[in-house]
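We modelled the chain as a single entity of 321 amino acids. Its sequence is:
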Amino acid sequence: MNVKRIFLTFPILLSAFLSPAQEKGKPYSQQINGTKLTFSMQPVPAGQFLMGSKKGKPDEQPLREVKISPFWMSTFEVTWDIYEPFLYKDYEALSSTGPIPADVDAVTRPTKPYLDMTFGMGKENHPALAMTHYNALQFCKWLYARTGVFYRLPTEAEWEYACRAGSTSEYTFGDDEDKLAEYAWFKDNSEGKTHEVGKKKPNKWGLFDLHGNVAEWTFDQYLADAYSKTGNKVSDPLVVPDQLYAHVIRGGSYDNSASDLRSASRMASDPVWKQIDPQIPKSNWWFPEAPFIGMRLVRPETPPSKQEIDAYYNQPAIADY
């Protein structure tokens, strides 16, 4: 497994020139150009933190010091409101203020799911569900075609750093599990379903639902011993994904117990989430048995080069038989 950092400091692109509404270190609202849709982004400052846990599961160890470059993270989990126009061209047309540009239309869209991927849990302001890692990357590519801004999945280290927001406790708000219901939808209070984003308290950096509601994709390949492999006192670590399974998922979901929602807790994607998929080969786009997986966006303060962006978005799908 090749372990390296790929998000380096590259020459600034046109997309890096910030409008007054997108000043460094400031929250902003992103208009999805040519549509009526927007989403909000929160700044996450550069810094360092202790990643992992001393007393948690073996795959959360050893505790190590990590430095993180500045970025923005989406205030909320990606909702169906902005995901469905990517999924369905007719939804995009309804949300558009003009013809769909050719470069946007050229982005490969997901195959239409054969199930109701909301699983009856709600759509408006609810987190989008059950997309594969590849699907999540292609959604980011669609956003790039629409906005000219490089959005991507968070790395595992970025996700934990943003969740902790300067804390060293089990949760972003402290160690008191009794307070978790103030910040999260999880097994004890969710009634077995997702809820509208932003209904619980945010963390200190203005990010909602990092604990619970839906678990969230990161870009990293899952390795149980990733922390020992990448070492201590590292900057922006990343385990580059080069295999279909497993990828790292963070935050826990509405269906998880409190311990799985801890800031350090790690989950791994699993091929059994496609067990009932009747297609041969199985879909590159959907996990019909994972209604607890969603996604959140990151924008690095300094974007990579056009070549690196293209490489990120144009990774070929790996057939899942």
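As a brief sanity check on the tokenised model: Residues 1-16 have pLDDT under 50 and may be disordered. Residues 283 and 320 are 7 Å apart (CA to CA).
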